[in-house]
Recover the amino acids of this structure.
């Protein structure tokens, strides 16, 4: 066993681990002990070096030792959005700031620790079944530390109108923390819901978020899932979304990555029955020395399944981004459609992108497209705007915004779209210049 | 208004303009005609300030200023407008917002108060009629998904809203059917006045049936080789360009 995981092992011993799930945690820890952190010699981690995470001896002992005042939370709430809210502060569920009373019939939203106690049967059936500890050591590490997180169960034939807004807030604390949020979303037949997962740094603390979300969609279920990553610029974020999809179910995933020093987002969709559809939209905006890696994988396991992926990156400073989109069309998965696109805008000479679409096709009657572009701002567009009296700086900002906004403007839910547009504008070098070009 | 003297310009190592002279007074409409490759579009682009052209010799004076020293946006602020031969599609940038920002940038430069949303809407409603611009096009992204004719119409619409002092129309007639050509021409004609100068760059005489120029110039091999009145255009239509080239040689 190497020295660099010692803190995880000793903290594990201090963990409350006396429930029915104890041996799952223990075996996940054993797995993590065997593998350790992934090295960049592994193909899957080739462009992302996790040594900064490995080197730092984060504390996994999460106590609610910081107080976040209501004003701080209000500042990051969605304007005019009536939603169900689940709030975690430094990894620990905050009952005080959450609003989980008076939930609709057919809806369960609770902290994972409560769910382990209250909903054992459902959890035994679903928890750890879609995120594979063997595929990522980070997932194994997360499983070993399952305590806090959000469990959502939407019963069959239930449509939840209010979005469920999950806030993982981080703040400087006595020791640099590693948190391991674990979410499970179980959607019954013909159910519908919208879930927003936000990971937000409230200051510039150095911490490590290691999140895993598992989703199970039964026949005809529809989930709109938003992940908004705004960690502190000194934080490390590893996030894993794993989805198992039943017949004619639909997942719409929007992943917006803005913060973090070192970030890795993984999405794994399994289209396990006919007619299942996954849509993956992603936007990453990086600057300074940020490193943001997006890996997605879709398994078309059955015929007539659909996947559409559209990721865009805006890179500035000396930042580096990675996009890897894998589509696997399994044998006999005929008449599937898979479309993938990744477009990148490099705003500085020192920014770097590694983009790689990967298609593995074992069926013969399929429709697959993919494309990747890397470029600077279009000179013809720039000249056109300038010839229309727009100064160069504004024109550059505007074109950058327009490039990023193409992903956001498709979001049908106005409060989320407006919030994201504001966030995107906020990331631009000259945000003030382009306000009059937006809906504000 | 505009005085071009001995203008030489290159793209890369290729010399395109080879000593061009042209003088345009306020209120005049000048047509620059010439065969393909004669340098017509280069002239339009050099006047608007597009990158990629090296001016190696000569001067361009606009209202007493050295035009070549100004950035494209500064030229626009000062009243120069280029109607593009190939208007650019800009996904994600709204037509109306662009136009409002453009109008206010120009007003700011002139020291005039900026227009608020209501005043601006009043202005564009009025101007839309001139080129029969459809309202739904206005609220779309700039030129995105527009037909060729709609793009050209949008150029003239922008011109009518911005009210430039010097408008350069680069092959505005190309790709237009006869109805669209009439609409675009009416738009341009409605903008003619004693203070506004217009340079029409065109390959064909057809446009000049609808917009009557005061002066016609023939550009060939980077120079103006013949100038005349409207009749010159008709002569060109009849005889082609070769006779002038021979005459000039």
């Amino acid at each position: 066993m190497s020295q660099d995981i010692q803190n995880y092992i000793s903290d594990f011993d201090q963990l409350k681990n006396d429930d029915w799930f104890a041996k799952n945690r223990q075996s996940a820890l054993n797995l993590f002990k065997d593998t350790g952190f992934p090295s960049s010699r592994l193909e899957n981690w080739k462009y992302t070096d996790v040594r900064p995470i490995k080197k730092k001896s984060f504390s996994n002992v999460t106590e609610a030792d910081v107080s976040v005042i209501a004003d701080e939370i209000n500042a990051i709430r969605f304007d005019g959005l009536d939603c169900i809210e689940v709030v975690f502060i430094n990894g620990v569920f905050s009952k005080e700031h959450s609003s989980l009373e008076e939930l609709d019939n057919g809806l369960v939203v609770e902290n994972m620790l409560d769910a382990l106690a209250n909903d054992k049967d459902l959890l035994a059936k679903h928890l750890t079944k879609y995120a594979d500890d063997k595929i990522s050591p980070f997932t194994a590490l997360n499983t070993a530390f399952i305590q806090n997180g959000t469990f959502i169960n939407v019963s069959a034939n239930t449509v939840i109108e209010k979005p469920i807004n999950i806030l993982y807030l981080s703040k400087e604390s006595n020791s640099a923390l590693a948190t391991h949020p674990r979410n499970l979303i179980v959607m019954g037949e013909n159910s519908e819901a919208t879930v927003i997962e936000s990971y937000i740094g409230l200051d510039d603390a150095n911490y490590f978020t290691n999140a895993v979300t598992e989703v199970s969609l039964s026949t005809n279920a529809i989930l709109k899932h938003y992940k908004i990553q705004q960690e502190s610029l000194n934080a490390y974020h590893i996030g894993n979304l794993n989805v198992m999809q039943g017949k004619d179910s639909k997942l719409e995933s929007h992943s917006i990555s803005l913060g973090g020093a070192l970030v890795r987002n993984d999405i794994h969709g399994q289209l396990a029955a006919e007619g299942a559809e996954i849509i993956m939209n992603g936007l990453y905006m990086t600057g300074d020395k940020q490193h943001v890696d997006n890996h997605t994988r879709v398994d078309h396991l059955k015929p007539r399944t659909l996947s559409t992926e559209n990721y865009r990156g805006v890179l500035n400073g000396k930042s580096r981004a990675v996009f890897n989109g894998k589509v696997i069309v399994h044998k006999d998965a005929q008449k599937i459609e898979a479309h993938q696109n990744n477009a990148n805008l490099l705003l500085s000479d020192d920014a770097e992108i590694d983009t790689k679409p990967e298609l593995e096709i074992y069926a013969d009657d399929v429709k697959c497209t993919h494309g990747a572009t890397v470029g600077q701002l279009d000179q013809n567009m720039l000249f056109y705007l300038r010839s229309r009296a727009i100064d160069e700086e504004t024109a550059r900002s505007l074109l950058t915004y327009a490039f990023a906004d193409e992903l956001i403007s498709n979001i049908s839910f106005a409060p989320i779209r407006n919030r994201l547009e504001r966030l995107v504008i906020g990331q631009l070098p000259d945000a003030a210049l382009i306000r009059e070009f937006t809906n504000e | 208004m505009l005085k071009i003297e001995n203008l030489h310009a290159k793209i890369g190592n290729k010399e395109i303009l080879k000593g061009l002279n042209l003088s345009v007074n306020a209120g005049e409409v000048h047509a620059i005609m010439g065969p393909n490759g004669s340098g017509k579009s280069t002239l339009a682009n050099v006047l608007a300030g597009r990158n990629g052209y090296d001016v190696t010799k000569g001067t361009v004076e606009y209202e007493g200023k050295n035009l070549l020293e100004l950035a494209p946006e500064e030229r626009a602020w000062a009243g120069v407008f280029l109607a593009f031969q190939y208007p650019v599609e800009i996904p994600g940038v709204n037509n109306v917002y662009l136009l409002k920002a453009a109008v206010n940038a120009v007003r700011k430069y002139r020291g005039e108060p900026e227009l608020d949303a209501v005043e601006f809407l009043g202005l564009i409603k009025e101007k839309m009629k001139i080129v029969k611009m459809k309202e739904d096009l206005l609220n779309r992204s700039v030129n995105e998904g527009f037909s060729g004719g709609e793009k050209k119409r949008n150029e003239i619409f922008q011109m009518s809203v911005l009210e430039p002092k010097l408008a350069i129309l680069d092959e505005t007639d190309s790709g237009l059917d006869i109805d669209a050509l009439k609409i675009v021409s009416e738009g341009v004609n409605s903008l003619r006045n004693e203070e506004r100068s217009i340079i029409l760059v065109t390959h064909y005489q057809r446009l000049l049936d609808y917009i009557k120029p005061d002066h016609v110039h023939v550009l060939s091999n980077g120079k103006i080789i013949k100038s005349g009145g409207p009749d010159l255009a008709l002569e060109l239509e009849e005889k082609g360009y070769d006779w002038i080239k021979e005459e000039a040689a």
Remarks:
- Residues 392-408 of chain A form the longest helix (17 residues).
- Chain A is about 20% helix and 35% strand.
- The two ends of chain A are 55 Å apart (CA to CA).
